Amino acid sequence: MELKFLNSKPSSLSEKAALVARTKSSPFSSFEHSVGVKFSQEFSSCRGISKKASYLSSNGTYMPKRANSSVDKEKTAAENYFYQISGTNGASSSLFSRNVGVLDACDDEYGGVVVDPDRLPANPDDFAPMLQFSLSHWKMKGKKGIWLKLPLERSELVPVAVKEGFEYHHAEPGYVMLTYWIPEGPCLLPTNATHQVGVGGFVINDKNEVLVVQEKFYDPSFADLWKIPTGFILESEEIYTGAVREVKEETGVDTEFVEVIAFRHAHNLAFDKSDLFFVCMLKPLSAQLKVDDLEIQAAKWMPLVEFVAQPLIQEDGLFKKIVDICMARLGKHYCGLLPRQVVSKFDGRSSCLYHNVIDAGNVTCNGN
């Protein structure tokens, strides 16, 4: 039995179609399961043939038939694959078709495509041909980067996408993001997030006492160290609100943000990510301590002179420099950075710009 792929190209192309499968007599209904079907690049619409399909008219002539498509996003562009099964020894021929459409997606502002994760094909078997056809379609349209977000519940589609050339970009608890770069040359898609962002709260009260903690989990060499409360900011959280929150969570003390005193930039830390650590000066609004039992071993108000005199502070260049800067700020010999909400005309969004504010007629920093 012969299987031939038919499309809207001239008959000369149809005559050149390769024999793609031979099998013994097989029930028509089970054909897809019994024959492994592959098409050459010349005949497979997944490789770029125009969005047309052929159907058999009443007089036996193959006629072109355009697929349905949306004008704006072309979400429903489709190709009808028609297969001709020619029986051996003069047996009659039969036709069946399979409709393959472009995955639902929208254009991004950089000439790429973002696939809609909520409208992926329900049947996993339909995903591979649709993905192949979509890539061909997007290539013809001159698209560049393809973003494919696969929810956790559709994880069975990940190996299919990888087989088609998609690469991992990043993952979150509920999904994995994969990308595909169509043009020749290096991929210009932005990489995954390269940094984690941490904050530390330098809190000092009217008695010249610093709020310090000892963590439950630490390197044994830091067993005796009393340090300022630190932690990572949350997604979409501002630096100043993150510092206030971390101090509250670890010690129970309410605070008010004053300034960003300094920040450290380090590389190749956890999972080879870079790290930004912002030291913030905070003013205490309460004094009672309530320790976070999950992360903190102890917390207390420590005299500033004792805090500075700790051997681990004095022997560590980074810690010592941070303390020196905080001391200079307390003496009003140093100005930190204050956040200001500004709106950019480029994207129309409000964001925080941290900058130094000094009265032109005053050489000292009065702060808040």
UniProtKB/TrEMBL annotation:
GO MF annotation terms: ADP-ribose diphosphatase activity; metal ion binding; NAD binding; NADH pyrophosphatase activity
UniProt domain Nudix hydrolase: residue ranges: 194-324
Listed Gene3D superfamilies: 3.40.630.30, Nucleoside Triphosphate Pyrophosphohydrolase
Highest taxon, organism lineage: Eukaryota
InterPro entries, per database record: NUDIX_hydrolase-like_dom_sf (IPR015797), Nudix_hydrolase6-like (IPR003293), NUDIX_hydrolase_CS (IPR020084), NUDIX_hydrolase_dom (IPR000086), Pre-Nudix (IPR040618)
Keyword Metal-binding in record: yes
Keywords: Hydrolase, Metal-binding
Pfam families associated with the record: NUDIX, Nudix_hydro
Protein name stated in the entry: Nudix hydrolase domain-containing protein
Natural source organism: Salix udensis
